[in-house]
Amino acid sequence: MPTDTTTQIVLAGEIAVMAAGLLALWRCHLRKSARTPAALARWQVELADFAMLLALAFGGAVVAAITCSMVLKTLSLSEASQQVLAGAFFQLGMLGGCLGFALFHPAGRSYGRARWGFIGAGFAAFLISVPLLSLTGVVWLALLDWLHVPYERQSLVDLFANAESRWQLGALLALATVVAPITEELVFRAGIFGFLHKRVPRWLALLVPALLFGASHTNLASFPQLVLLGVIFSIAYERTGNIAVPMLAHALFNLHSVAIVLSGVDL
Q: Exposure check for the chain: N or C terminus, fewer CB within 10 A?
């Protein structure tokens, strides 16, 4: 149980992060002087190549999931440990497919380019996401309560809150802050948004991968927040042309969420 002091520290920290996020939103996006042309160029790739990327990514995830189920049959693990292992196999399988496309497919040379100089923009994107998602979450959950729609927290939140051992907590932390941000940004931002960018109206290019990103987490309570997060990450990628920017922002956002969960304070 968190103490009053812990609660006060967490609340003060959260207020500070939200204030910094609103300031970053003003400085980076709302001021006229901050409105700069997008740095992300049109991805010169054919539809067949894009389909190959998706096939490799999701095919890798399916193969990894099947492999994991076979491995789990030979092991005696708790349900929580099985969930951690299954998540690791799924994410790593998808990541393997993306890296295979980047390394061995001719179109992969222009896919998901990362370069240095991403820390400031990535940190700003993370800060901007916190107050916007917090407000969205409050409104959405209030609406669900008003409509008497049942909902549950994401299963990953419960896994962190009830981690059985240090290795399990460490594995979850690595998945949430390293593997998932890299994998999901390569699929949803570098892949889907990158292909739609400058091929369809901008609003549609932003919305489609964000909706898929939100739906992939299969959680009603966090769906609109994740959709908004996907839009924020796509804008960060569009503006900088550097996939490392949303990757860092994604990692920081997940780390922030994990820290709140582990603090035991219910925000």
A: N
Residue 132 lies inside a defined structural domain of this protein: yes
Q: Which among 83, 101, 121, 137 has a CA at the least distance from the CA of 266?
A: 137
In a domain, 125, yes or no: yes
Please check whether residue 71 lies inside any domain of the structure. Answer: no
The first and second tokens of residue 181, run together, are: 């941000």
Give CA–CA dist 13/130, Å, rounded.
12
Residues in the chain: 267
Instruction: List helix spans (H) across 105-179.
Output: 119-146, 155-161, 166-174
- Domain span at residue 27? 4-44+116-263
Q: Whole-angstrom Cα distance, residue 234 to residue 257? A: 20
pLDDT in tens, 209-232: 999 999 999 999 999 999 999 999
74 phi and psi angles, rounded to 5 deg:
-95, -5
3-class DSSP assignment, residue 115: coil
Residue 96's CB is within 10 A of a number of other CB atoms, namely 18
Q: What is the pLDDT of residue 2?
A: 67
Domain count, the chain: 1
Residue 86 CA from chain centroid, whole number: 18
Question: 170 exposed, middle or buried (CB, 10 Å; 0-12, 13-18, 19+)?
Answer: exposed
Token pair of 121 as six digits: 């923009």
- Asked whether the predicted pLDDT for residue 265 surpasses 80, the reply is no
In a domain, 107, yes or no: no
231 C-beta neighbours (distance < 10 Å), count: 21
Q: How far apart are CA 133 and CA 194, in angstroms?
A: 23
Determine which of 1-10, 42-51, 97-106, 114-123 has the lowest per-residue pLDDT on average.
1-10
